[in-house]
Design brief:
The chain contains 13 helices and 7 strands. Strands 3-2-1-4-5-7-6 form a 7-stranded mixed beta sheet, with helices on both faces.
């Protein structure tokens, strides 16, 4: 949903923008193409591989600066950049295809590898650590809370019984024996989502950001979120609504935008995307 995001940001040629989840630079390149030499872009990502890729891909642009960090540290990053406020922020909360298709990151249940699932590989906690060191009840709660999976108790019981779980295939097998065949793909996706969210503390980071981003957005500045599951979309929806009720932000998308048929044809992974946008008015 690149074009929709860029359109809603209403980019000013001399403005300053933050791509809070720069990934492999798709949105960043589009923002930079609309900025003059007087405009600036800051790109943030927890994935060091993504930052290295962007530094090479976008080396021709002198008005972009990248940070290997979390978007929750936006205040520190702006302070280092000697910037008080920005004109727009973009958060694409989905995983990149490079992460999903990686043969050693463990994000996909379709590719056997070590169970890592860290966005930031300098972080100590891996998915295998979480799975092998949590109690059965803790595992069940994680799967239910972050995956909204009804079979969380039986899955957690089988994971606990089959430990140590160190590979994607180990985890897939524990889920397989816990689920009927016709429900298995959705359950696999939910369990992998739940563990990834917990390992990377995704929802708490998003909540912290929603509580603080307003102070760093200029009057008239805009923010765009692209969410890929109901948990994060709900957090964004309620966070923006609170700011709108306080007359601080104007919500620009009464209902979230969803991918067009053309985009779905080109990128089936975008099917669950929902885009929300708002503008600072106070």
């Amino acid at each position: 949903m690149v074009q929709e995001a860029i359109h809603l940001l209403e980019i000013s040629k001399a403005g300053t923008y933050i791509d809070c989840t720069v990934g492999y630079g798709g949105h960043a390149r589009n923002i930079l193409s609309q900025l003059s030499i007087n405009g600036n872009l800051i790109g943030i990502d927890r994935d060091k591989e993504a930052i290295k890729f962007c530094e090479k891909k976008l080396y021709a642009f002198s008005n972009v600066r990248f940070f290997h960090s979390s978007y929750s540290k936006i205040g520190e990053i702006l302070s280092l950049s000697k910037i008080r406020k920005v004109d727009g922020m973009l958060l694409d909360l989905g995983m990149s295809s490079a992460q999903i298709d990686s043969k050693n990151r463990g994000f996909s249940y379709k590719i056997d590898s070590a169970l890592d699932m860290r966005y930031d590989i300098t972080q100590e906690l891996k998915a295998s650590d979480l799975i092998n060191n949590s109690s059965q009840n803790e595992l069940a709660d994680i799967i239910y809370t972050y995956g909204e999976e009804r079979r969380s108790r039986s899955i957690a019981r089988n994971i606990h019984r089959m430990r140590p779980i160190n590979s994607v295939q180990n985890l897939v097998e524990a889920i397989r024996i816990s689920t009927p065949p016709n429900k298995r793909k959705k359950t696999l996706a939910r369990v992998f989502q739940a563990i990834r969210i917990k390992v990377n503390n995704e929802l708490h980071i998003l909540e912290d950001f929603l509580a603080n981003f307003y102070d760093h957005l200029s009057l008239g500045g805009r923010i765009v979120f692209i969410c890929f599951h109901s948990l994060e979309d709900r957090i964004v929806k309620h966070g923006l609504k609170r700011l709108a009720l306080g007359k601080k932000m104007k919500i620009l998308t009464k209902k979230p935008l969803i991918p067009s048929k053309e985009e779905l044809h080109m990128n089936s992974r975008s099917r669950s995307a929902k885009l929300r946008a708002a503008e600072r008015i106070l």
